[in-house]
Design brief:
Layout lengths: L5 H4 L22 E5 L5 H11 L4 E5 L17 E2 L3 H10 L2 H15 L6 H22 L19 H9 L3 E7 L3 E6 L5 H11 L1 H6 L1 E5 L13 E8 L4 E7 L1 E5 L2 E9 L10 E4 L6 E10 L6 E6 L11 E2 L5 E2 L13 E6 L3 E14 L10 E6 L14 E2 L1
Parallel strand pairs: 1-2, 2-3, 5-6
Antiparallel strand pairs: 4-5, 4-17, 7-8, 7-11, 9-10, 10-13, 11-12, 12-13, 14-15, 16-17, 16-19, 17-18
InterPro entries: Peptidase_S1_PA (IPR009003)
Length: about 400
Amino acid sequence: MGEFTDDDLKLISKRSGKREIPKNGHIWTVSPLLCFQTDLSLLSGFQILKEENECNTMIIIKSKCREYEKDKTDKSHPNVDHTKEQLLRIITTCLIKPLHELLEGWLANLKTDVSSNQATDIKTEIEAICHQMAFDDCDDSSSVSVLPIDNTKSILPDDVKNYLFRNSDVNSFGIWMNSSLKVFVRKATDETKLKDELIYLNKNFFERYRLEIEKSKMVMKQTLMQGESLLTEANYEDHKYCEGTLGGFVTKVDDKTKIYALTCNHLFPETNKFAYMGDHQNIKEIGFCVFTTREKSCDFAAIEINGSLVNECDIAFRRDDKKKTNAKVNTKSLQNVGIVHKIGNKTDVTTGIVLSPEYYDKLINESNKEYLFLVKGTNGKFSEEGDSGSLVFC
């Protein structure tokens, strides 16, 4: 509705061909109405729309030719500028409530089939989607400030954490699916004794989180444009290379000509090591490692790109559909993050759910009490050897 131009119509994506509604397909209960603001005052426009149209949401496109009059007390009618990205985002928010209702209905139906492993996996993925919707809804995309990582509060109480680190029978442990504490122990461990001691230590915590003890150990392999293959020389004399992934690029704040590739520490455990790209038959040096660390559970390294290759770098971050996007470091707890994705050299784009937002592995480094997070792929493996260095996006 309203006065619009051909350029305005380009804001709306059109589906090619005629789409047939599938049998028993879900019909959404929302009816967004797209309105282009004219010289008519905003409040007068609202009154006319309310009288003549029945719709759940009115999306007002700001006029380019007049000053926008914003009623800050009325948040029921979202308004956006003339950009396709902002319009897509606000239209998508119209589906949040009905989508939540649809997912809650699915979860209720799945509760009657708790014995099925497939039903459990589906239920877990639906819950992850709900978590992600809540995370996106509360995320302030206008803020790009990065808070110190120390602001991320641990879910595990200190008394439970310290006890598990002291116990020599414990291999690793972590919060599982935001509902339980899973402890991996040696085969000779007295499960009953361990369980009793933990519950006695912090009864309140275990009233909220179920305790699971498993006699095994997690097998965690340190596996070696964003998603490209990155090589480092493992043996100089034999010219053998270790392969990982170029996770993404960053630029220096005060010098945009300085570009750095992000990857992992176990591919570049030392600075000044050269980085290469290629297929082992045609190797090309692209830069050298200027920073690397394993402190506080980080597995991170930065490669300064050679000046002659700066113009060949596609420094944009990519979504799971490979389209460009902005990104910032997430300093919040991963407890409410649902779906994540990465682009790796070996497996390309994969999606997964955060299986454990807080995981401690004593077998890798017993003295390091900083935690990791674990991701489970939603359709096969989330990563394989050669994907190391990939950035994980939520």
